[in-house]
Design a protein that fits this description.
The structure is a homodimer. Chain A has helices at about 1-10, 25-35, 55-60, 100-115, 130-135, 185-190, and strands spanning about 15-20, 45-50, 85-90, 120-125, 140-155, 155-160, 170, 180, 190. Chain A is of the alpha+beta class and about 190 residues long.
């Protein structure tokens, strides 16, 4: 438990990477294999994946993502800090008509697996889907649910407690440390029986 | 990575438990604390939790759950094999109007955390919500997303490869071993760039 607890706490959404550190396709396959072993609503397993470690495709995918909505003066990492791999998580509409929270289960498992080997990443729900579908030749029967960006982390991220005003917006301090306010445990538990 | 991989593979949806093994409320709080450290869309953290280790409430929660849809001649575990704890995962509509896949991220983390300490569990999306809300006094602003049943596992679960017919329904063999057909990795990866 202790080591898993540590892993969860280390697993922060990371948006700046060491772009020199390359990731091989086999690493992405191993991460998807973790997702393959996860629970799926009704065991339908409707999720499909596109993997990218190619520089050209990575650039294209990058251009489809909305980076860090709360950092309004930051449009995303510069070249040297961009992700070196992506996993696109899609729901196959020929398999199921509702994907429930399968993509959350899968994406979290992929990110924990990445973190366990010293990588880090970020889930994106803010995606220019039409553009992405063009770039990656995504068929209409596949619904893009999330894009996971991956790389070797190159930023420091700290969890703070949400302040009295309840402001949950993350921010960067003067040293470029990224702060993420999280609610208190006691604010999340409604009742205990 | 290896030990995390092992944890993910051990973390099977479990539906039969040793009902003599009690779980204390603090264990549930620690599991929710793991979920508290997870990614949340826009960092809004709209999820709220109800915890139960009480025999009376557990019985009530049990009566609200749809157990193992594919095991048509099994209505759920008998008394001696029922879960000894529950975590109800809800979205707070005063915090967000869409919970995206936050509950998938949180529930998977909770189950991996449970598995890391020798417990096991199962996510339920098939819930008699009105009944559950009555039993647990759940306010209208909280939308029930999942119920997680927990306990000490008392069943053997094996992963099989999906057969040529593509049948994904889990089943129990003559020795009461639970088999879960999972799709092949190569069937999940659409393309690699």
């Amino acid at each position: 438990m202790n080591s898993f607890q540590k892993l969860v706490k280390q697993n922060r959404s990371c948006r700046r990477f060491d772009n020199h550190h390359k990731i091989d396709p086999q690493t992405l396959e191993e991460l998807v294999d973790l997702a393959r072993h996860c629970a799926s609503a009704g065991n339908k397993q409707p999720l499909k994946y596109i993997l990218s470690t190619s520089k050209q495709k990575n650039d294209q995918i990058f251009s489809c993502l909305g980076w860090a909505a709360y950092l309004t003066d930051w449009k995303g990492p510069e070249k040297a800090e961009q992700p070196t791999a992506y996993i696109v998580v899609m729901g196959d509409k020929t398999v199921a008509d509702n994907f429930w929270c399968d993509h959350g289960i899968a994406a979290q498992t992929i990110l924990l697996g990445a973190r366990a080997q010293g990588l880090a990443g970020c889930m994106f729900g803010s995606i220019h889907i039409k553009r992405l579908a063009d770039f990656l030749h995504i068929d209409d029967h596949l619904e893009v649910k999330l894009v996971i960006a991956l790389g070797k982390p190159a930023e420091t991220i700290i969890i703070d407690e949400v302040d009295a005003n309840g402001d949950i917006r993350y921010f960067r301090d003067e040293n470029q440390v990224h702060h993420v306010p999280k609610r208190k445990l006691s604010d999340l538990i409604v009742s205990t029986w």
